[in-house]
Each structure stands twice: as C-alpha cells, then as structure tokens.
Amino acid sequence: MGFQWDDKYSTGNDEIDKQHKQIFAYLDELEDHIEKGASQEWVERFMSGVGLYTRSHFCFEEMCMRRSKCAAAAQNKVQHTKLLAAFSAADKRLKQEGISDALLQQLRTFLTSWLVNHIMKIDVKLKDCN
C-alpha cells in the first residue's frame, strides 16, 4: 500500500477527511493495477470513477470552506479548477493514445503529487476555520 493516511493530512472536517481517504484508496488501486498490468478498459473506468468522485468532493469541500469563511476558499477553488483541467487533458490523451507505461506513470505521479501537495498546502487550512 503506497498511499497511507496520516493525521498531518487532517482538515478538521471528518467528512472531508473521509473523502480524502477514499481518494487515497483510489490511488492505491491505481498503483496495484500499474504493478499488475492495467487494461485500457480498467483505466478508462478508473478515470471515469475518480473523475466523478473528485468533482463531487471538490463541490463539497468548496462549500465547507465558503461556509467556514476560510481564507483559503478562493485559492482552493482555483486549484480545483486547474486539477480538473489537467485531469481532463490526461483522460483525453489516454483515449487518443491508449495506455502505456509512461502515461500511467505520469498519471500516478501527477495525481499523488497533486493530492499530497494540495492537502498539505491548502486543505489543512480548513482546521483554522472550524
């Protein structure tokens, strides 16, 4: 298991933390399939599922930050928009080119780096607003 939850990722909002843990689980699933050899069909289903879950999570998180009058709310929304654009571009590339080890590695690196950096730099600021 490559992506384990740590209390340093806590936002102080149990539901957001639960959702972040689910995203970590998705990344673990991606890691497992990369190691075992992922099929095009599986990767497309993964991208669709993660995309839907992430959009739902972002809406919820943005609502919580607005309600809490969190100073990071606007920055959070901008970063979410950037991630969704990059995620859509990766999904489009996957559909056009098909899966490859290089594309899967790039996807894994991008998603894990973004998730950890985003949580640690922005999402944890919600603790101060609760």
Note down, in words, how this protein is organized:
With 130 residues, this protein is mostly helical. It has a single domain (13-129), classed as Hemerythrin-like (Four Helix Bundle (Hemerythrin (Met), subunit A), Up-down Bundle), CATH 1.20.120. 75% of the residues lie in helices and 0% in strands. The protein has helices at residues 14-36, 40-67, 73-97, 101-121. Helix 2 packs antiparallel against helix 3 (73-97). It starts with 13 loop residues before the first helix and ends in a 9-residue tail after the last helix.
Notable characteristics:
130 residues, mainly alpha, Four Helix Bundle (Hemerythrin (Met), subunit A), 4 helices, 75% helix
